[in-house]
Amino acid sequence: MSLRHAILGLLARKPSTGYELSGMFDASLRSAWHARHSQIYPELARLEEGGLVEVVDRGPRGSKTYALTDDGRTELRRWLVDDEPDRSQRNESAVRLFLNQLLDPADRRKVFTRDLEHVEAETAALLDLRERMDPDEPFAAQIELGLRINEVLATWLREQAER
Predict the structure, then answer these.
(1) CATH architecture of 3-82
(2) What does the mean pLDDT of the chain come to?
């Protein structure tokens, strides 16, 4: 996945500062993509230089609010519609779950329980986000998708921990 396109997508939702974008990554994309401030700000500068975003407001201490330009919307649409996604993934959790069968039963249970606690915390965060989100928000369906995926994963982890 491209950081550039993730930022364009978040800015398509609403104009934002780099700090706000970081919060949106943490709140809505954290299971798919993590971006640090040190990655977001240089990418915003490149996007601005390329004419895909523009500064629409300046705040205290030099903060800048960025918005998508027409060229930015065109690029985001092109990436979403025309580019074939890279479906390969690096998912450490999935590799650990795959290799977990090599452990003795007590250690497997410990790992499954730890992962279940993580999924339950992620579910709580998504429920909180859904509660605060306007139901007409374009990304509300993705919150529901995350909740459904977590429900299936939590059920599977409980079953494995009880085996």
Answers:
(1) Orthogonal Bundle (1.10)
(2) 86
pLDDT of residue 53: 96
Nearest to 47 by CA among 78, 100, 11, 13: 11
Higher model confidence: residue 29 or residue 157?
Answer: 157
What residues have CB less than 8 Å from 93, skipping those under 6 apart?
A: 115
Domain ranges of the chain: 3-82, 92-162
Tens digit of each residue's pLDDT (9 = 90 or more) over 116-148: 999 999 899 889 888 888 877 777 888 888 899
Share of the chain above pLDDT 70, in %: 90
In sequence order, what are the residues at sequence separation of 6 or more whose Cβ sits closer than 8 angstroms to the Cβ of residue 104? none
Predicted pLDDT of residue 110: 94
Instruction: Report residue 68: phi and psi, to 5°.
Output: -70, 140
Would you give the DSSP letter of residue 67?
E
Indicate the angle between helix axes 37-49 and 3-13, nearest 10 degrees: 80
Rounded CA Rg of the chain: 19
Task: List 65's β-bridge partners, or say none.
Answer: 57
